[in-house]
Amino acid sequence: MIQLEGDKGFGVSLLPYGATWASCRVPMRDGSVREVLLGCASEDDYRRQTSYLGAAIGRFANRLKYGYFKLGGTDYMLERNDGEHCLHGGPSGFGRRDWTIEELGLNKARFSINSSDGEGGFPGQMAAEVCYSIDASDLSVAIEFLAAVDRACPVSLTNHAYFNLDGDGMDCRAHSLRLQSRLFLPIDRDGVPEGRIENVRGTCFDFSSATTLDAAPDSHPQLRLNKGYNHAFILDDACHNMRLPAAELVSVDRSLSMAMYTTMPALHVYGGNYLAGTPSRTGKAYADYAGVALEAEFPPDCPNHPEWPTPDCIILPGGIYRHSIRFEFRPR
Question: What is the pLDDT, as a whole number, of residue 219?
Answer without folding.
Answer: 85
